[in-house]
């Protein structure tokens, strides 16, 4: 679990160092803006934004039982972040697989995207959908709630 916090903590520390440098240069407004930007980046890349990831096999088994979509994602992907934010609370109902932590998940994504690790890739009822519209994904979750 600690590995998931490495990037966000590095962003917070880097932002603090950059902001301190700006304060010493006499630019507190710039320091505050930069610190806020680094904190926002840290928050977006933290486990607070994405629900806990599972392995591809476990996610597919759970999806077969409850009918909820499986979403393959990776940290730092702006399209994954957009999907997660636009889904809002509905995102917690999906099964999320981090392809950087799960080789089987990465292989599953490559298999349906011509060898590319294109994310987000949502699998709904066995059918893959690359970079799906967040509204459509939300509709796929609604019937099962």
From TrEMBL:
Domain Glutaredoxin, chain residue ranges per copy: 70-127
Spans traversing the lipid bilayer: 29-50
Alphabetical list of Pfam families matching this protein: Glutaredoxin (PF00462)
Protein name: Glutaredoxin domain-containing protein
InterPro entries from the UniProt entry: Glutaredoxin, Thioredoxin-like_sf
Signal peptide extent: 1-19
Gene3D superfamilies: Glutaredoxin
Superkingdom in the source lineage: Bacteria
Keyword Ribosomal protein: no
Keywords per UniProt: Membrane, Signal, Transmembrane, Transmembrane helix
Originating species: Streptomyces muensis
